[in-house]
Amino acid sequence: MKFSVSSSDLLKQLQLVSGVIASNPVLPILEDFLFDIQDNKLTIAATDLETSVRTDIDVNADGNGVVAVPAKILMDTLKALPQQPITVSFNETFGIEITSAYGKYKLSGENGEDYPAIPEPETVETVTLSAYELNQAISKTLFATSNDDLRPAMTGVFFQVESGRIIFVATDAHKLVKYTVHSVRGDVSATFILPKKALNLLKNALPSTGDVELSFNKSNAFFNFGNTKLVCRLIDQRYPDYNAVIPVDNPNLLTVNRVDFQNSLKRISIYANKTTNQVILNINDGSLTISAKDLDFSNEATEQLPCTYLGSPLTIGFNAKFVIEMLNVVESDEVKLELSTPTRAGILLPSEQNEGSTIMMLVMPVMLSN
């Protein structure tokens, strides 16, 4: 059995799928791509048993068949070839031969029937949303997830599907991001947690335009867009009640230029203690003073920024790294910081929200030393 295809077109599809392949898989066959040729269409799949990606490409084939192809050697071969038509053939013992204008390359495959089955969407609920909005939601929440494997729920992003919208929440207990997409089609109510690896793969695979069909059941989430399908196993944990930590009474409101604030934090944080990254905001009417000290090395820095401030004079400390990360995902010219006391969380918001989506970020203070 053999098929012909453009080397660059095949490589593009393989790169889309290859991100799911683990470096040390639990089964040797998981180092392979699954090639399934049916009616001049090649379906390429890969899985790590938690996340699976499948895509297809049109080819010229002389029959149907299935084979598992070693991923690394195949991709390395295609990367080393200039764009050209190639022919891939395999026999009944799963020996694979690639023919190009330069020569022939032989490698050993495996029986595709032994490849683990990829979950199919059964007994699912489905919503549809913009690929762009989904990409934005992932990009603006992933950085706030936790790396603590002892708290598995917080290592993923929480999806709260409600009528006409999805709320995406990520937190590591120091910072929290709540991103809401308002234009979702489908009358469904559900909650689930998606793992970080799957969302990173999804973010890189999503097109810039078009829609994504999101289906889910109690075990898996299924993303369908273009000729690509991504399946991931949900994190089977209870997500913490994030609403309980969001302060509702914040009488002090700071408004400041986002870029100036971010650049000032980057400079001042150089002089902060490397363990806490603490910077101190001293806020009065029309003036924001940002300072940091590292007493171990007698390092100290202070800067002053113009601002708009409504409220009582306030001095509060934050981890500069967390605030800088949050400012990275804000697109407005100015940001608002809602504050109450030096011991309560601050709320960071863009000065202007988009029509189709809104974002709210929370950062816990670093206690001021006497």
Helix and strand topology:
Blueprint: E1 2-6, H1 7-18, E2 32-38, E3 41-47, E4 51-58, E5 60-61, E6 65-70, H2 71-80, E7 85-90, E8 95-99, E9 104-108, E10 110-111, E11 125-130, H3 131-139, E12 156-162, E13 165-171, E14 175-181, E15 190-195, H4 196-205, E16 211-216, E17 220-225, E18 228-233, E19 252-257, H5 258-269, E20 278-284, E21 287-294, E22 299-306, E23 308-310, E24 314-319, H6 320-328, E25 334-339, E26 346-350, E27 357-363
Antiparallel strand pairs: 1-5, 1-7, 2-3, 2-6, 3-4, 4-18, 6-10, 7-8, 8-9, 11-16, 12-13, 12-15, 13-14, 14-27, 16-17, 17-18, 19-23, 19-25, 20-21, 20-24, 21-22, 25-26, 26-27
Would you mind describing this structure in some detail?
The chain has 370 residues and is an alpha+beta fold. The chain contains 6 helices and 27 strands. It has helices spanning 7-18, 71-80, 131-139, 196-205, 258-269, 320-328; strands at 2-6, 32-38, 41-47, 51-58, 60-61, 65-70, 85-90, 95-99, 104-108, 110-111, 125-130, 156-162, 165-171, 175-181, 190-195, 211-216, 220-225, 228-233, 252-257, 278-284, 287-294, 299-306, 308-310, 314-319, 334-339, 346-350, 357-363.
